Write a sequence for this structure.
């Protein structure tokens, strides 16, 4: 089969690889029908995630059709249409039992990280019963690709950890797919104000159509002063970091109101400064989270019912043969206006 293989920092190649096989009774193999690229894949290629071994197939998002199942898989059978969660969960370990699937002792974020991922014709899914979700007949499969990672990530790490409430003020720093997913799902809670911060004018314009109440281009103006002005000098109840660099974490910290919450979503490759000399008396909370995908069943219902329309994030389509061009396009979003790219084997 064809697969996109990580070859070390800055290097990747479309290669011919053997088909995955069932290795444990709880495994399934899935024929990928659609996959995509995540900001985290770009972090891996930058060398920010050193535990990815050269030779690993990239990708942790996608939908497909079950090809084979191990003897202990009871929920799925060959031919079933499935959504692949970016987080593998055994459902039984101490962490899974408390809903922290991201820290599953034999799972967590392993796809396209510690084991071969989804940017291929086929993938092996461990703990298939609890790591795949059935796709209801007649659903827009492309919309569901947004449920593998970005919708639960924006919602769990940003909106839930940030405790967005009706009438609150929210700022989301980073208007990439994850920041936009946080913007979409924050509106389930009716905050009064959602300020989007980015340096990419196109992404800010998209954020406006997705319900942002104010836009700040931090390339053109001081984002902290701008957010303070928009909130009568108070700052925001929730600041969501959706980039993953020290500069944007600093913005989130500087704009949080007394009693507010900083919800970090970004994958950080470098240390950041924490200004406790200012924040110690500010009654704030700082949260971090690797997405657990515990909200996937709920989000699936909101997407199937048309309450959320994450397909609006899809800007480009490629075949797996064109995966290099797909990375070029996704990696040069300022020029290409790319948000999510769909890749079809
Ligand atoms: N915590 C988790 O479980 C989890 C899961 C998935 C992704 N992530 C992380 O979330 C982050 C966002 O993902 P994405 O796919 O949207 O990434 P992305 O790279 O597409 O988007 C990042 C956005 O940040 C903007 N940006 C860059 N520098 C900026 C600056 N100085 N000021 C303001 N904006 C700036 C970019 O223009 C871009 O729009 C990444 O770090 C990704 O690795 C975390
Ligand atoms: Zn991801
Ligand atoms: Zn587990």
């Amino acid at each position: 089969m064809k697969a996109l293989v990580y070859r070390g920092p800055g290097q990747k190649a479309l290669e011919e690889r053997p088909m995955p096989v069932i290795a444990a009774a709880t495994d399934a193999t899935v024929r990928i029908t659609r996959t995509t690229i995540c900001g985290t894949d770009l972090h891996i290629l930058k060398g920010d995630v050193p535990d990815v071994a050269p030779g690993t197939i990239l990708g942790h998002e996608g939908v497909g059709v079950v090809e084979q199942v191990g003897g202990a898989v009871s929920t799925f059978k060959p031919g079933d249409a499935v959504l692949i969660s970016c987080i593998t969960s055994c459902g039984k370990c101490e962490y899974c039992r408390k809903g922290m699937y991201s820290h599953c002792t034999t799972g967590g974020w392993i796809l396209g990280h510690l084991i071969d991922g989804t940017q291929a014709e086929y993938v092996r899914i461990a703990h298939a019963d609890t790591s795949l979700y059935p796709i209801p007949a007649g659903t827009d499969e492309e919309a569901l690709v947004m449920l593998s990672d970005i919708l639960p990530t924006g919602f769990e790490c940003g909106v839930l950890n940030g405790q967005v409430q009706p009438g609150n003020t929210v700022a989301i720093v980073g208007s990439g797919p994850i920041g936009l997913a946080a913007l979409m799902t924050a509106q389930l809670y009716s905050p009064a104000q959602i300020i989007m911060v980015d340096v990419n004018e196109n992404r800010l314009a998209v954020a406006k159509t997705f319900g942002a109440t104010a836009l700040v281009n931090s390339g053109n103006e001081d984002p902290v002063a701008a957010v303070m002005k928009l909130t009568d000098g108070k700052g925001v109840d929730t600041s969501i970091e959706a980039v993953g660099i020290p500069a944007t974490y600093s913005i989130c910290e500087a704009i949080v109101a007394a009693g507010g919450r900083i919800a970090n979503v970004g994958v950080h490759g470098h240390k950041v400064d924490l200004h406790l000399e200012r924040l110690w008396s500010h009654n704030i909370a700082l949260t971090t989270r690797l997405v657990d995908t515990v909200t996937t069943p709920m989000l699936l219902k909101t997407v199937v019912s048309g309450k959320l329309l994450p397909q609006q994030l899809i800007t480009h389509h490629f075949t797996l043969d064109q995966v290099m061009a797909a990375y070029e396009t996704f990696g040069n979003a300022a020029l290409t206006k790319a948000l999510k790219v769909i890749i079809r084997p």
